[in-house]
Write a structure and sequence with these properties.
- By secondary structure, the chain is mainly alpha-helical.
- The chain has helices at about 15-20, 50-55, 60-70, 75-105, 110-120, 125-130, 145-174, and strands spanning about 1-5, 10.
- The chain has a two-stranded antiparallel sheet with strand order 1-2.
- The longest helix has 28 residues, at about 75-105.
- The nucleosome is a histone octamer containing two molecules each of H2A, H2B, H3 and H4 assembled in one H3-H4 heterotetramer and two H2A-H2B heterodimers. The octamer wraps approximately 147 bp of DNA.
């Protein structure tokens, strides 16, 4: 579930509510010794897994959420990196297209309407998000072909008017 209105991401896994209440849920250990000293005595600088992978999204958070979902017995680190990269790419693509829609509407602030326009105007994103509802997004603008409707409705109106006039004359004569 991606909440664009608050511009933050929250990933929901169905078994996440039950994970915190179950008895076999493992808490993360915080009392572990930190191995930051090299053999020559100097401290090493910590590098996050996201920085190692060259990503902005948190790889460790994805890994933890995937483990807590209890979908598989084991989750590899590369799966978390891959998922983080995919989500980062999709969000960058949506933000780029919605920024273009915002600029096209001569606005400086990105609102859910621009996100909806960006997603619905892109064929692949529209197919992927076909069942997604974006709050406060509105609908795509669609203008009916008015000249065709106007011409056919006028022809229909004239035919009905003529038939009613003809029937009225027949009824009056009888």
């Amino acid at each position: 579930l991606i909440c664009f209105e608050c511009v933050h991401f929250h990933f929901y896994f169905p078994s996440q509510e039950n994970a915190s209440t179950s008895t076999n849920f493992k808490k993360r250990q915080t009392n572990r010794p930190i191995k930051t000293v090299r053999s020559d005595g100097f401290k090493e600088k910590r590098i996050s897994k996201s920085a190692r992978a060259g990503l902005q999204f948190p790889v460790t958070k994805f890994h933890r959420l995937m483990k807590e979902a209890h979908r598989a017995k084991r989750v590899t680190q590369s799966a978390a990196v891959y998922l983080s990269a995919v989500v980062e790419y999709l969000s960058a693509e949506i933000l780029e297209l919605s920024g273009n829609a915002c600029r096209d509407n001569k606005r400086k602030r990105l609102v859910p309407r621009h996100i909806l326009l960006a997603v619905k105007n892109d064929e692949e994103l529209d197919k992927m998000c076909s069942k997604v509802t974006i709050r406060q997004g509105g609908v795509l603008p669609f203008v009916h072909p008015l000249p065709f409707l106007l011409q056919s409705s006028l022809e229909h109106y004239d035919a009905v008017k003529y038939a009613a006039k003809f029937r009225f004359r027949q009824v009056c004569w009888i």
